[in-house]
Amino acid sequence: MASSFQCFWGLFFSLSIYFIQATPTSNVYIVYLGLNQSHDPLLTSKHHHQLLSNVFECEEAAKQSILYHYKHSFSGFAAKLNENQANILAKMEGVVSVFRSRTMKLHTTRSWDFMGLTLDESSEVTPLQLAYGDDIVVGVLDSGVWPESKSFQEESCLGPIPSCWKGKCVKGEMFDPKRDCNRKLIGAQYYHKGFEEEFGPVNPRTFDYKSPRDFVGHGTHTASTAVGSVVKNVSSFGFGQGTARGGAPRTRLAVYKVCWNEGLEGICSEADIMAGFDNALHDGVHVISASFGGGPPLRPFFKSQAGIGSFHAMQLGVSVVFSAGNDGPAPSSVGNVAPWSICVAASTIDRSFPTKILLDKTISVMGEGFVTKKVKGKLAPARTFFRDGNCSPENSRNKTAEGMVILCFSNTPSDIGYAEVAVVNIGASGLIYALPVTDQIAETDIIPTVRINQNQGTKLRQYIDSAPKPVVISPSKTTIGKSPAPTIAHFSSRGPNTVSSDILKPDISAPGASIMAAWPPVTPPAPSSSDKRSVNWNFLSGTSMACPHVTGVVALIKSAHPDWSPAAIKSAIMTTAYNRDSTHDSILAGGSRKVADPFDIGAGHLNPLKAMDPGLVYDMQASDYIAYLCDIGYTREQIKAIVLPGTHVSCSKEDQSISNLNYPSITVSNLQSTVTIKRTVRNVGPKKTAVYFVSIVNPCGVKVSIWPRILFFSCFKEEHTYYVTLKPQKKSQGRYDFGEIVWTDGFHYVRSPLVVSVNNAGDSDDSLSYSI
């Protein structure tokens, strides 16, 4: 009794002092302890309390500081700490890493047809989509779900919920599990403690639902794209008319709401994301889709939610698919680069929304937009209403623009939101927005808006130089197959990988421009409080939209090949990707007029049908990543703490080589002299007896030799190792060149990108090693 009394007063005084001294500098920290060794959630939580008691007056104070226990798939916790407490914990035995919880940002009817998963005459799904997915659960970590959407209604053909499922639907604001969950939507949970520590209570300020229900819209959109049920006769404002469905429409859905509304933008706390990962893996999901991330500088793998969550997922055989980020076309902007996960770039499809502009009945220009009604007015240059011609609210000259259409120029597509608000504020009727060539992607706007290229914009600008001229904007149309596709979207983040330069990222490209999918009707289709419209389907662009396209295909492959590891599934997707557009020419990189290279597109564009039967795969297990982790600076003790029991851990020098990680692509970022790299492939084709021949495209200035050049597979020999020797034949420094290696049996074409930087023309810095 006395000890309890002392702890109470000790807690009282310590909290008083902590409130006065530490609260101004206290933040949410994540303490990562590696694999959960006890497998008992109660014992794991107790261990967390004991560990945290070392930096508090007593265990009771430690308990009050904790936001989350990560106690299922891995061990750790999120707690309110000051910097001194965090530093003390980081030095304790058994602690793998301690890092501040950051906030991440959230990075269809035609896209599946474009990729070959077409509908038949009865508008049903393809045999591939119909046959596979019923036994697979996809976990979507995002902003929740709008359960009433037809995308998440169960179909009569769905069987009982898979017996392996251990998850649940939880009750919350405007979300009743008995009403909102079914055999399609089988899991729904939410996590908000990390967000609220950073931004305050979810309600009423943020206008979100304290439940799995989605207000932001992003989570509903991505889940619908990945696994949405078949819904006929959908459109958004009459555009994109057709039948909507996800890539794996029979697959089950579990949502983990880790992102919340902050100014009509989705914000996700790492503390909440870690809780979502922990529960999703415990619940029994087979694939995780995560369309969020942070830009450079990137943290080491085990000081980030993405690296930790996806590593433990990989060990459990769960594939994790991330978006690459929307910071392109700048180089080295790619995020989510852990080699045990899939990183997805965004590309266009062959659907466009041409919008005709007729100026003074003389000049006709075709742009892109979602204009529903004819707009008439006078076209005026931006400088008339904005200082320096800069279309933003703060530069307004406070002139009324009633009946005017404003012509604005920008080199940054992301600025269009400011321009729209600015022209709405001055009462204009419409906006014509001139962008660099290849950057015109139609979006849902708050005012009739047409995107044109700067050459067209200059032509219009010269014509209205003396005075505004009459202009008519016709309603937009939907066209298919009229423009070369795919191209890499200008916003898609690019390589090289800034954490580990010898691992190619992004891995793959998929549709991510003007993608239509399900949407909450209470949320405006354009991210503006002035938008009062309501839709059930909406167009969005971003690598967030590309990510669930790959997720859906991963679910199909996992269902068809349940024994394949995440590495084998990733290999199948990467080695079957294509690099030619609809005109059979090279795929272009948006944001420039150059041919897309592996830093733009990864291995190429997603090809779902080919990925189901790749012929050969480059496989890896958790043990295969150990030498890689050693090579980038992790110690044997740190690695032992995170891998499954019984895994042999050795960091001997002869074992260490990033280049020898059995990745489906080969990247050498610092080739100074001749090197030899090995790769191992396994035959997974329908014929156990097969012969594969190799062809090579040499990167400029590099001689590539492969031995052996023929691989013979049989029932007794399903795996083969081959060696790639790279010999520099030029003097160069820091310039990347690209080639490829293709193995073929005449039917399968197993292609690996080859990325090499010859660095022998002067002093060179070795790549930095990263440690926990």
UniProtKB/TrEMBL annotation:
It holds the Pfam family Peptidase_S8. One of its GO terms (molecular function) is serine-type endopeptidase activity. Residues 1-22 form the signal peptide. InterPro entries: Peptidase_S8/S53_dom (IPR000209), Peptidase_S8/S53_dom_sf (IPR036852), Peptidase_S8_Ser-AS (IPR023828), Peptidase_S8_subtilisin-rel (IPR015500), Peptidases_S8_3 (IPR034197), S8pro/Inhibitor_I9 (IPR010259), S8pro/Inhibitor_I9_sf (IPR037045), SBT (IPR045051). Residues 28-107 form the Inhibitor I9 domain. PROSITE patterns: SUBTILASE, SUBTILASE_SER. One of its GO terms (cellular component) is extracellular region. Keywords: Hydrolase, Protease, Serine protease, Signal. Residues 133-581 form the Peptidase S8/S53 domain. Residues 660-756 form the Subtilisin-like protease fibronectin type-III domain. The active site is at 142 (charge relay system), 218 (charge relay system), 544 (charge relay system). GO terms for biological process: proteolysis. Belongs to the peptidase S8 family. PANTHER family: PROPROTEIN CONVERTASE SUBTILISIN/KEXIN. This is Subtilisin-like protease SBT3.18.
